[in-house]
């Protein structure tokens, strides 16, 4: 079942505001996250949807996306056999499954990770005053309107924390499944926070798949990597062919830490990956790589901003595209040296 609204004559922003009001009037919001939802909506109203001359959307035409009236999924189901076929070897007991943006404990198994990896809810995480301030600041300073929409509608979220000096043997897979809708386009907003404590290591695989069509995957991942820690992050986008997929990775690296990010994309009408990385202390290192395989009218766009906030940091970017038919791809990478 979906709750659907029509875009008002005042434009696409008004449609989002109306949908948010419907969201607030439903039983979906979390009382603990509600203040963040409202602040994010304020930020959305400030940013507004991008025009073609917007510096982060120079090569991306979002007219069709923002002109679509989306609803929010309120009910879903998926066969366990469908989940099992998308869990990678080695992750049978180290995976989390999100269904339409909501974590499904009954379809998840993280027993192989033991006690060295703490997995909890965002509601629990904001009980920490420092994390609460971090979340508030990220919403206040958000520069991507679609990430603001994610925050405005987030009703759940997951915090993953790796203990100090722990090298996790098994890769952790997050499977994001979108069931779509036959009644009209739907939007899902998964939210994940990853925190690696000093000297820790983790391999993280995030895979996006569709068990239906006609959906907008709008995900945000916030990542903090402390001193001498290493995160290998593989992002696999295998959505349905008529899906929209926007993803933002926000990464903060401390002294002598390392982030290895790999992305693969194929088979959707519009993909936009936004990577923002802050190298905040000496010795921090980031490597970003990706490949897109496109055909017909599919599109894939990469926007990358790497901030070298101090000296003695290293960053590498390497992206390739295989393009057929009328498909389009773009790469917009900027390194900012302070």
Secondary structure elements and pairings:
Elements: E1 2-3, H1 12-25, H2 34-47, H3 63-66, E2 71-73, H4 80-84, E3 95-99, E4 102-103, E5 117-121, H5 122-125, H6 129-140, H7 145-153, E6 158-162, E7 172-178, E8 186-188, E9 191-196, E10 201-210, E11 215-225, E12 230-238, E13 244-253, E14 258-266, E15 270-279, E16 285-294, E17 299-308, E18 314-323, E19 328-337
Parallel strand pairs: 2-8, 3-7, 6-9, 7-10, 8-11, 9-11, 10-12, 11-13, 12-14, 13-15, 14-16, 15-17, 16-18, 17-19
Antiparallel strand pairs: 1-2, 3-4, 5-6
Helix pairs in contact: 1-2, 2-6, 2-7
Can you tell me about this structure?
The protein has 338 residues and is an alpha/beta fold. It has one domain. It is 18% helix and 41% strand. It contains seven helices and 19 strands. Strands 1, 2, 5, 6, 8, 9, 11, 13, 15, 17 and 19 form an eleven-stranded mixed β-sheet that branches. α2 packs parallel to α6. The longest helix is centred in the first third of the chain and has 14 residues. It is globular and about 50 Å long. The termini are far apart.
> Which band does the percent of strand residues land in?
35-45%
Low-confidence segments: 1-9
Order of helices and strands: EHHHEHEEEHHHEEEEEEEEEEEEEE
Q: How many beta-strand runs?
A: 19
How many domain regions? 1
Q: What is the count of helical runs?
A: 7
Q: What number is the mean pLDDT?
A: 93
How far is the first residue's CA from the last residue's CA? Answer: 50 Å
Quick one: overall form? globular
Return the structural class. Answer: alpha/beta
